[in-house]
């Protein structure tokens, strides 16, 4: 197979930060995933997001160090594979193969929820598919153009979240102390105590919602100074925690009655309670625009990931050759981008609840692999060298992460829905191991991942 063309280094740290924040989308995390967390634990969603945010910060430092040491477009699977070997890298690729369309479909599914005030008859699934089609077409544009477009939409998104935050704290229905010390869940219109399994599942989902700063690594091969990506990841994580926790806290403080918490869209019901009809409509439109932005940014980001899988020859030769094609005018991986968009369209048919369950269970395994790789990489001198970001408090953050994710996995399994998500992810891991053993490992000379320009990873790293 011919060597894949390299992506152009045309992005600065601000452009990468805008693209990354647009991909992880504070509005999606709060208003779509957060809505599911509210359904699980009511006002306890505030504590779930606080705990999930702090865990995510601890979880992420190992990912940041790996990304600075191996700034490859393949992201997590490429970094883990460089440190723990091809088999572990491919297990992570299998997780990515499931989580990528789940994440994008989840975001797209939220659009109809927030267009309801303007067009209540919009069918959710066709709306999500239509938004994905338009977003995928936009994602093929030059990445610098995409960064500008997503940056404008991101401003709208953050303004909408700021309004939600202001509405809740301006007219509180309960005290902050009550929210943090006596959270209340709602079932069938009645308050109910939180079980440990449900609470753990909520924290796991919230942690996944707040995470995503590591997606900056997918743009590292287009960043002028790729070693800077590690520090970018940490800064974006802190910013995302602040922008997401505040509106969830505002809902917990300002929601009036159990009906708001039990509504199909708790945040939409909350906005309708506190804002005039005109303002509620404007916020709903802003949120829908923000979700569209997140869909487009997600397709841009994961188009790079799928392009990298073609460069690594994961697929049959004709498929891999197609995936590494770059658009002659925009320089974007257009075949990979179209493939990501089309797959996400199919996943919108799974339904919102299953998408959230899969995302949370997938995140538990992802953080475990990243932190094992972070520990091994530092021990072997493969990461944290030179100008690359060096995770603080090593190895404490790795140990805390592994204990935390093990606890979340056990507690989440106590909930029936949580077990469903974990079983599907387990089946995905088995399928990845089978494919690696019977397909990739059987190739002459085995299978190994490469770095920018198709060079072996060690050479690519030394050239930074």
What would you note in describing this structure?
With 464 residues, the protein is mainly α. It has a single domain, classed as Up-down Bundle (Amino acid/polyamine transporter I). The chain has 20 helices and 2 strands. The chain has helices spanning 13-24, 26-41, 45-69, 76-84, 86-109, 111-115, 124-139, 143-170, 176-181, 196-210, 229-254, 258-262, 266-274, 277-311, 317-323, 334-347, 352-379, 396-412, 416-440, 457-462, and strands at residues 185-187, 190-192. Strands 1-2 form a two-stranded antiparallel sheet. Helix 7 (124-139) crosses helix 14 and helix 14 (277-311) crosses helix 16 (334-347). The chain is globular. The two termini are 25 Å apart.
Q: What is the first-to-last residue Cα distance?
A: 25 Å
Please give the order of strands in the largest beta sheet. Answer: 1-2
Strand content: under 5%
CATH class, named Mainly Alpha
Tally of discrete structural domains? 1
- Unreliable parts: 458-464
> Architecture, CATH level 2?
Up-down Bundle
Q: Element order, helices and strands?
A: HHHHHHHHHEEHHHHHHHHHHH
Total beta-strand segments: 2
Task: Output the number of helix runs.
Answer: 20
Using the alpha-carbon principal axes, give the shape.
globular
Structural class by helix and strand composition: mainly alpha
For the sheet with most strands, the description reads: 2 strands, antiparallel
In which range does the helix fraction lie?
A: over 70%
Computed Rg = 21 Å
Look at the structure and name the CATH superfamily: Amino acid/polyamine transporter I
CATH level-3 fold name = Amino acid/polyamine transporter I
Mean pLDDT: 85
């Amino acid at each position: 197979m011919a060597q894949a063309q390299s992506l152009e280094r045309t992005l600065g740290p601000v452009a990468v930060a805008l693209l990354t924040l647009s991909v992880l989308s504070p509005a999606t995390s709060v208003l779509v995933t957060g809505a599911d967390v509210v359904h699980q634990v009511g006002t306890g969603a505030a504590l779930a997001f606080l705990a999930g945010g702090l865990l995510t910060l601890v979880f992420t430092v190992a990912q940041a160090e790996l990304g600075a040491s191996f700034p490859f477009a393949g992201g997590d699977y490429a970094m883990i594979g460089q440190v723990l070997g091809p088999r572990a890298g491919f297990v992570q690729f299998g997780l990515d193969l499931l989580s990528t369309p789940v994440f994008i479909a989840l975001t797209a599914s939220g659009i109809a929820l927030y267009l309801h005030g303007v067009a209540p008859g919009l069918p959710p699934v066709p709306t999500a598919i239509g938004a994905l089609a338009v977003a995928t077409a936009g994602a093929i544009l030059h990445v610098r153009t995409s960064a500008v477009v997503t940056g404008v939409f991101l401003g709208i998104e953050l303004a909408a979240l700021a309004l939600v935050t202001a509405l809740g704290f301006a007219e509180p229905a309960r005290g902050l102390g009550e929210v943090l010390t006596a959270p209340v869940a709602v079932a069938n219109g009645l308050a109910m105590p939180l079980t440990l399994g449900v609470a753990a599942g909520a924290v796991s989902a919230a942690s996944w919602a707040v995470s995503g700063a590591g997606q900056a690594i997918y743009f590292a091969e287009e960043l002028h100074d790729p070693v800077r990506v590690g520090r970018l990841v940490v800064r974006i994580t802190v910013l995302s925690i602040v922008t997401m926790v505040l509106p969830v806290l505002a809902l917990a403080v300002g929601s009036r009655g159990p009906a708001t918490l039990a509504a199909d869209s708790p945040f939409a019901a909350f906005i309708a309670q506190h804002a005039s009809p005109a303002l509620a409509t404007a916020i709903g439109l802003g949120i829908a625009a923000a979700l569209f932005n997140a869909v487009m940014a997600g397709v841009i980001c994961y188009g790079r990931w799928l392009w990298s899988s073609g460069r690594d020859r994961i697929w049959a030769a004709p498929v891999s050759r197609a995936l590494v094609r770059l658009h002659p005018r925009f320089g974007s991986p257009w075949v990979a981008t179209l493939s990501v968009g089309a797959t996400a369209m199919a996943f919108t048919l799974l339904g919102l609840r299953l998408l959230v369950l899969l995302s949370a269970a997938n995140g538990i395994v992802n953080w475990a692999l990243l932190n094992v790789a972070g520990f091994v990489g530092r021990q072997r001198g493969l990461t944290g060298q030179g100008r690359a970001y060096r995770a603080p408090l090593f190895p404490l953050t790795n140990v805390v992460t592994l204990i935390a994710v093990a606890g979340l996995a056990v507690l989440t399994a106590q909930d029936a829905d949580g077990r469903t998500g974990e079983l599907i992810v387990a089946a995905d891991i088995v399928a990845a191991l089978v494919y690696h053993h019977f397909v990739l490992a059987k190739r002459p000379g085995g299978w190994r991942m490469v770095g920018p320009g198709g060079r072996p990873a060690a050479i690519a790293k030394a050239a930074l």
